[in-house]
Design a protein that fits this description.
By secondary structure, this protein is α+β, with helices and mostly antiparallel strands. It has 11 helices and 32 strands. Among the domains are: about 160 residues, Sandwich (Immunoglobulin-like), CATH 2.60.40; about 110 residues, no CATH class; about 120 residues, Immunoglobulin-like. The termini are far apart.
Length: about 575
């Protein structure tokens, strides 16, 4: 791509030479492109949805309909030529439909040359100009981006404010703009000696051309998007991750930002090191943390985040957005169809990173369980399998993508074992990176890692809104021992952990696998040793087992003692037996 931006009118002109390979078994007679900037026009699908949804995003609300022509966004493809022949174009809001003059056969390539023009909107959602902190340009979702085509066909979703799904490619981008701007972008800068602006050159001096503009040349390999930001007052620093990427930091050179941002690099080095060890090796040479946008949003090799934060908040958002590089960036599941696979996995890994950076005794994933429970109790719960654009409320979408997604991963440890979960997540990254995995791919990885059948877990938790509630029905003396009867009150299925505490302080732990697992989770260490009991047949509402100890020695019985499963009513999970008690029988 070759793009010129006018910093006075905020208009830009660009050309693209796109070499596209049809890796499918189908003949393609048409292709689709995303034109995201057209969402920032009155009457767009994003505008209408943000005004009628019952809990609108406060960053959007009714702001789009109030935009003047000079403030609106625009992206138009003026022409597209395929292998020398003009294509027929149909602009459909945030989507462009292209009828190819020459059908593209399976496993063949074609060259498409585009000319496009656009206008940068005022900052509303993710992208735009002149954000609340005064950053000039946050250029994301800004160019005609070809849609993904896979076994389900084209994924040319209109842009209504959710997130993205893209095609892998190698980008070679040149940006022409006023030399006063410092630019941060996806990829590696190729001409640092001509640019300077804080980029390492290996030389003491910079050989800038005698011009009022600079030509910024970036190359990014094997990514599915290209983003950039520009401001006249950016301070640019760098920090190397040992055996990892070079980190760049771009923030406004103002005293109000300096205190937090100067401490950010050391935290982010530790974050990347932890992720490389525990979740897979970051596959690109650089990453940039850039002040801009409207909160925090991930893109290949960079994030845009608002900068006016205390260090804890700044580290938190930086960890979350950079961890997206593993899930949004390298694995790149379809965020329209499976938003929880991106946000939820990122939340899980990010919580682990934050626990490493700022250790605390609390369960780092407890907030995910709390968020999910609140959604269930609100009555707004919807199946996670719903397309991201079509959740009835923003609350249901957000909680499902973030809290449920994190819970789904964390709770899986109660099924397969914690060590198996950790090993499985590493295996998942190594096996599925750069392959756009779907839920079945994660399921199969975890089945191979654990040796258990997990289709019931994925089917029930992803495709339904059934809830989980196990409880203790009775604890009674029986033939010199203790008989414990459990009951399943909710519709959802899970294996169950039970702890029995004796009056002398001894602890006995038991695990009841679900019959559908066809096995038992691994014992991770001596500290978590348990006695595996016979499987709970999934059709049975109750389950009983005997322990050869006198009832008089038992002080307490607890279901799910570590609060590892999403039990919606933990009040029936604990039975205490006072001195002289003859047992417990549910009223």
């Amino acid at each position: 791509m070759d793009v010129s931006l006018d910093g006075r009118s905020h208009a830009f002109l660009g050309t693209t030479k796109l070499i596209y390979t049809n890796n499918s078994p189908d003949t393609l007679k048409e292709v689709f492109f995303h034109l995201y900037f057209n969402a920032f026009q009155p009457g767009s699908e994003m505008d209408v949805r943000s005004r009628w949804i019952q809990d609108p995003d406060s960053r959007v609300g009714a702001r789009i309909i109030e935009l003047t022509p000079e403030q609106q966004g625009k992206l138009v493809v003026d022409r597209l030529v395929q292998d020398g022949k003009q294509a027929e174009l149909e602009h459909l809001g945030t989507v462009l439909k292209v009828r190819l003059p020459k059908p593209l056969l399976p496993h063949k390539s074609t060259t498409m040359e585009l000319a496009f023009n656009g206008q940068v909107p005022v900052q509303i959602r993710r992208s735009g100009r002149d954000n609340a902190e005064g950053v000039a340009y946050s250029m994301t979702q800004w160019y005609p981006k070809i849609a993904e085509y896979d076994q389900r066909g084209w994924h040319a979703y209109p842009y209504a404010g959710r997130e993205f799904f893209g095609v892998w490619g190698d980008f070679d981008v040149t940006l022409h703009l006023d030399s006063a701007f410092t630019v941060a972008a996806t990829g590696e800068l190729q001409n640092a000696l001509e640019i300077g602006h804080g980029y390492p050159t290996g030389k003491k001096s910079v050989k800038r051309p005698a011009s009022s503009t600079l030509d910024w040349h970036f190359v990014a390999k094997n990514v599915h998007d290209f983003a950039w930001a520009a401001d006249r007052a950016y301070k640019h620093t760098i920090k190397q991750v040992p055996d990892g990427p070079l980190l760049h930091f771009f923030y406004k050179d103002e005293p109000q930002y300096e205190e937090a941002w100067k401490d950010l690099p050391d935290h982010m080095v530790r974050s990347f090191q932890f992720m490389n060890t525990h979740f897979g090796v970051y596959p690109w040479p650089q990453y940039s943390f850039v002040q801009g946008g409207d909160g925090g949003m991930e893109y290949p090799m960079m994030t845009l985040i608002t900068g006016k934060r205390r260090i804890g908040s700044l580290v938190g958002v930086s960890v979350h957005e950079s961890v997206h590089s593993w899930y949004y960036g390298a694995l790149a599941s379809n965020e329209g169809r499976y938003p929880w696979m991106d946000e939820g996995f990122t939340e899980y890994a990010g919580s682990e990173v934050m626990q490493e950076l700022f250790p605390r005794p609390e369960d780092p994933h407890a907030s995910a369980f709390a968020g999910y429970a609140a959604l269930v109790k609100s009555g707004d719960h919807e199946p996670p399998s719903i397309h991201a654009d079509h959740f009835i409320t923003n609350k249901a979408y957000g909680t499902t993508a973030y809290s449920f997604g994190e819970l789904f991963v964390d709770q899986l440890g109660a099924v397969v074992g914690e060590k198996t979960l950790k090993n499985g997540l590493l295996r998942y990254f190594d096996v599925c990176k750069f392959k756009h995995p779907e839920p079945i791919d994660f399921e199969r990885v975890m089945e191979k890692e654990s040796g258990l059948e997990l289709d019931w877990y994925f089917d029930e938790w992803i495709n339904t809104i059934r809830t989980l509630d196990y409880g203790i029905r009775s604890v009674m003396g029986m033939n010199g021992g203790v008989q414990i009867e459990l009951e399943r009150k909710g519709e959802q299925l899970m294996p169950v952990d039970i702890l029995m505490e004796m009056k002398d302080g001894r602890i006995m732990e038991f695990h009841v696998p679900l019959s559908l697992q066809r096995g038992v989770k691994a014992i991770d260490s001596e500290e978590t040793a348990f006695t595996a009991l016979e499987p709970w047949q999934w059709t049975d509402i109750t389950y009983s087992f005997n322990v050869p100890v006198p009832l008089s020695e038992v002080r307490m019985v607890v279901v799910d003692p570590l609060a590892r499963i999403a039990d919606m009513d933990p009040s029936n999970n604990v039975v205490e037996l006072p001195e002289g008690a003859e047992g417990f029988l549910k009223p």
